[in-house]
Amino acid sequence: GAVVSQHPSRVICKSGTSVKIECRSLDFQATTMFWYRQFPKQSLMLMATSNEGSKATYEQGVEKDKFLINHASLTLSTLTVTSAHPEDSSFYICSARSQGTGANVLTFGAGSRLTVL
Amino acid sequence: SQKIEQNSEALNIQEGKTATLTCNYTNYSPAYLQWYRQDPGRGPVFLLLIRENEKEKRKERLKVTFDTTLKQSLFHITASQPADSATYLCALDRSGGSYIPTFGRGTSLIVHP
Fold first, then answer.
1. Would an 8 Å CB–CB cutoff place A92 in contact with chain B?
2. Is the link from the previous residue into B30 a cis peptide, with omega within 30 of 0?
3. Which residue of chain B is at minimal alpha-carbon distance from A48?
4. pLDDT in tens, B65-109
5. Which of residues 7-26 of A touch B (CB under 8 A)?
6. Residue B22 in contact with residue B38, Cβ under 8 Å?
7. Which of B31, B45, B104 sits opposite A43 (nearest CB)?
């Protein structure tokens, strides 16, 4: 089945630094990937849709200069949290549309826990 | 505004019983509804999808119903096991044709041995 690999699983950084999270589709090509953010006991909040070879589509209220998304190939999308601050601490999860389902069934990565000190 | 409501209180049941989780929605006309399982610190895993013209879907010990009149889906786990303990999320395709799943906050299920 479809597998999405996400790295790192945990990252701790100092305030003001930038952090990059990678999301790879391992056995399929993903022209579109989705980035979600999740706070404890809250729902997944869609941040942006990552499109291979073009600019990402950001949800309302998400700062595109803060959360840089690059989808340079059919198997890799990256999310960079720039100049991170403690309020950016959260669980970030990427996903890709599963193949052959005829609908938007998503395969998720394992998530990345970001802690900004 | 569009809302997806799942019971925020954890559901505690005894092993072997049937767990029933509810997903209600307002201001949506979804073409399909999905259920995912999420374990702590992990990404969600897809379980089942049911389309608007389907009343019921089954997969092993799982059963999903979809009532577009009531705007409700029920998710059942029969013969529940402690390993079924997790948070279960329902998701609907977002109105407007984008078909990007929008998730409820999930209900935590705890199955006691």
1. no
2. no
3. B100
4. 999 999 999 999 999 999 999 999 999 987 655 668 889 999 999
5. none
6. no
7. B104
